[in-house]
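Please review this pair:
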Amino acid sequence: MLHIVNGDVVGAKLRKANIRGDILVWREVYPVGPVFVEMDELHQRSPRAEYLERTLGISADDYLTHYKSQEQILLNFRNYDEIVFWFEHDLFDQLMLCYLLNWFSRRSIGHTKLNLLCIGDYPGIDLFRGLGQLTTKQLETLAGAWQRIGQKELKTGSRIWDAYASPDIVRHVAILHEDTSALPFAHAALELHVSRLPSARNGLGIVEQTTLELVRHGVDTPRKLFKEIGSRLSLLGMGDLEFWYRLRSMSEQPNALLEIRGPHTVPDYRKEAAPFENCEVALTEVGMEVAAGEKDWLKVKGMNEWYGGLWLHGDLTWRWDAERKQLVYRE
């Protein structure tokens, strides 16, 4: 049996647990950076590796090495009688799940059985953020509770991944109106995905808008902001490296939304975050105007960002209307 899990913390706990089989930690951050329907070729992986190095500090060489290693294990999946996916309800995990379902949907599975353990809560935990919260004993109680993955799950995952990897914004929105109930947590996660896109109100996505609101109400350090964002937008499953990158983008001149006060460099995965976490964060004048809806940040700043297959650059001709849950186009 092969268990594919969403992170090193869960992987380490499963190795200590009384659960038989090999453990594969799937190391990816699909909510960040460019993705493609298939990423088997180097020309498809290289732009992603370069982006993650530039934004999160993940070495391109390290990324490509890990990618080849985990893909090789997948290619040998027929060595296993069963494979179990251990995932959660958030966007981070749902995209990981859909990538893997898409990968398997394009291959002859043979006699290998695919299974899914996917939960959005756990008894006794008020705000369930993920499997990493659970103890080894609690994880053991989930062993065997997985469900068999059939063609419906494979096809649904593949449709979602195709939409997420598309360069066409219409497809990112259209998937919200399709039946994705075979993967019960996917719809809510995808709604949060599109809410990250520039809004009709001021050009900010939900992460940036929520951050400005928190700072305006007195949350004034990167660590406090990350904690509050994690509570309010827990369905993103956003890690600290991504949030540090978002803060850095919001504080870059000209026309910064935030000012980060104190001696610091924004940490990446090779650097300690402690000095940065203790800095003070404040709104700039532009930040106050944008937060109030008086200015559109894209008109002031422009954009150069990836969300899945969607490259957002310049002053876009559309915005996401969160209240009506639809795209709004401008002349």
Q: What stands out?
A: The longest helix spans residues 60-75.
